[in-house]
Amino acid sequence: MPQPSGSGDLNESHRLVDPDHFARDVEEQLDSSGEKLLPSPWTQNNSSRRPLLLNNILRNPKPYFVSTVLFLLPSFVVEPIRTYTASSGSTTRRPQLGPTAWLDGLRGIAALTVYFFHWSMLWFDKIIMDAYGAPGSADTFFQLPIVRTFNSGTASVATFFVISGYVITIKTLTIIHKGGPQSNERLLPTLCGAFFRRPFRLFVPAIVSTFMIAVINQHFGIFERSVRRLPDLNSQLSDWYNETLRMLNTFDLHKTRYGVAVPIYNAHLWTIPIEFKNSVLVFMLLLVFAKVRRWIHMMGVFGVAWCVLFTQGDIDAALFCIGLILAEMTLIFPPTGQRGNASATSTTYLARTDGLGYWIRHFITIASAILGLHLMGYPLQDNVHAGGFQTISEWTPKPFYPEPGSVPYGQTVWSIGIGAVLYITACTYSAPLRLPPHLSRWIPTGIPWSQGKRGDSDGAALLHEETSIQQTPFLQIPHTTRFAQYLGWVSFSLYLCHGSVITAMGMGDYYEAKPAWDQGQELAQQLELSGQPVAAAAALEMAWDAYLSSFLWSSIPQTIVLFWISDVFARAIDANIVKMTRWLWVKAKTD
């Protein structure tokens, strides 16, 4: 899933682009001749907005046509052009990163990894599934421990769940820790608001995306390989409606990821109901333990995690609980180098940035991160034969141990879950990197472009003053780069859209290339049996090169289209849904 941002609270911490952004800027900057432009419809009062907008479009359609075209272009194309062509006198300060911005970047990287996983699994399923060193394995570079992590969809889903447990609880926990009468007044509205918005935030984008899939598939049939196409639109929408109700039946069909009800119109949305179910769990725990001593709260949450883990085998609920515990820990023991008041005033041992303790902390966090990445690369099958995984396979608890002859999926999610927790904890408590100024300026961290308006957030990802790279925790740097932050912004959209783009674009290329690869393998076997090993090797190599070339040439346009669609979906739909959920809460709540 984004998730699991997406995807789950796949993309709630940050928003970069206002959907009306391009249209407003075009109206202000389009006329280079100095002539007065038409009045902007966004500046009119609500009573006259629609007639004025229609009249302006009819009188002078060019600005609106241009603004529409710019809006439909991806922001990674338009925004650099805007920045480059902006007048020299105009200065727009780029907003800086908040204390949990690195989690957005990590979530974005995880969403991209999910796309890589599903796309490469289609073409190279045996390589993706088999463990390095297992009998019959191809033993490629991509099967090596740690390397495998960067193509593991299971690891990304575990990462989504830990991040979600953290970001949807940190704001409420921060209020609890402040204490005092004002804190008591803010606590319940904050928790209620987060809980109220959560189902809209998770399900509405999923419903919109599957509705679009249903309509497009019925008219054009481009998703027929994964979605059933019915003879008329009414039948298609009726089927979509029933499947949507099935997806919303969170507490019946989606108890754990085992035997989960996979949505027909987008199979990758199986994580969304699990995200909501476990969001309800952590919100309930926040409410139950809001007024108790904090050690009792942590022990209670840990007890719940232990119970669901070892009695139900529900690793997903446990990961949410651990995300909540980690959020509590960052408030009790503020990490050094984090942006925010807590770390700035901390006088604990963790606040030291020099001496032996500083280097010991680097060693512990880096070692933990490496171990976490190793465990997150746990193979999907033949793991008991894989180097570096035999011991933890033997340590797998009973609820996760596979039945004889079955695929060891339980062992996989157990080990990968531990790895995700280790890695995120290591990044959280990583010591800041100290680099000379002439080196640190070459690391492009920060929010891409100059977007300052953010969407709704239940996390603590607030904008702060500029933070130098020397103050950024070392292990968080890859997740605070501009590319990672962009991925974090589109992570939910990327998660929602990637399966449909693969079906519409990539599957056709795969089904064309696969028969040729199979024929090449058969020819190589025949040549081998006829005593021509050299010719067999040459035939196999030629077939493999052609198959790999088809994969690469299919990947490039598909990935570009995926980013384009995800970017537009994030601005046109996802950002507006965030605004809608906030508006609904404002209208629904009592004073």
Automatic annotation (TrEMBL):
Region (Disordered) residue spans: 1-43
Keyword Transmembrane attached: yes
Bias (Polar residues): 1-10
Highest taxon of the lineage: Eukaryota
Keyword field contains Transport: no
Start-end of Basic and acidic residues biased regions: 11-27
GO MF annotations, alphabetized: acyltransferase activity, transferring groups other than amino-acyl groups
Limits of the Acyltransferase domain: 101-357
Transmembrane stretches, start-end: 64-84, 105-124, 144-168, 202-223, 267-288, 358-378, 412-431, 486-507, 551-570
InterPro entries, A to Z: Acyl_transf_3_dom (IPR002656), Acyltransferase_3 (IPR050879)
UniProt keyword terms in alphabetical order: Membrane, Transmembrane, Transmembrane helix
Protein name: Acyltransferase 3 domain-containing protein
